[in-house]
UniProtKB/TrEMBL annotation:
This is Methionyl-tRNA formyltransferase. Pfam families: Formyl_trans_C, Formyl_trans_N. The lineage of its organism: Bacteria, Bacillati, Bacillota, Negativicutes, Veillonellales. HAMAP family: Formyl_trans. The gene is fmt. It comes from the Bacteria. It comes from Veillonella nakazawae.
Amino acid sequence: MSNQKQLRVVFMGTPDFSVPTLEALIKAGHSIVGVYCQPDKQKGRGKQVQMPPVKVAALNHNLPVFQPVTLRDEQVQAELEALNPDVVVVIAYGKILPPWLIRLPQYGCINVHASILPKYRGAAPIHYAILNGDTKTGVTIMHMDDGLDTGDIIDIVETDILCGETTGQLFERMALLGGKTIVPVLTRWVNGEIVATPQDDTMATHTAKITKEMGQIDWSKPANEIVNLIRGLNPAPGCYTYLNGKRLKVWSAEVVPSDTTHGLIDVHGKHVPIAISATTVPGTIVSKIAGLGVFCGDGNIILLTEVQPENKKRISAIDFINGHQIKEGIVFGDSI
């Protein structure tokens, strides 16, 4: 087993996703000389100022916390140089590191990234793995350079994406995987036991920012694509459609085997009749027995199982049907 050097570590991260990696470094006995995260922000209807999760974790361990608005500042540079880190560990920090910082520590700036690089560079790799229907993802430990997620790869740990898994669920698993991975990989890195591998830039894809507008369901799309959208935008920003002029959020759905010739769908082994014809258009509710069965653009059916009416709580699709006099043949609309 590799001998572990006790390192002076500057840690940079902000959300929940970063916390397991910070906790792992602390538990391993490294000297965390500074924790950098985004400034506190107002959140919620009450506009109360909330600390980032990384700051909360750092303060619980009595670690020094720094929250600069920008890293491109002479005072911030002097501050980091005075901390004299052996290594900087970055995970979901939310700021671009300037070149002087990337070259500051002896063992470099090490990034924990939630995809199998070079696929899904950028800010939303977990979302896009789900949106694109991938069955595998992973955590890449990368030696940072001046580009955005372009540094040489130190190690990759893969994991399967589970059937029906949402971005929120995968987010939690990947956060724990990052925490589990960082310490042994960092030990081997500083001991010179790993030679980093350059990325193949021709295989790179970049993830765009996730927006609320992406959540509107286009029922003309294939059923699998719609279900992946619902999974990929759960829990935020969420998917939605319109019914009788009101927005309806959709939290969970699945593609169900269908026999449109005989007017049946298979819901977990139970044959359920559907109301379908040659003139049925995408977005039409064709079944309300086991949930909201909706006809999609490729002729397949998806079953909505959990929804949220406008200004109401999340409920099962069955409860929604029972409380809103939903009829077969109603078509989900495009707008209010």
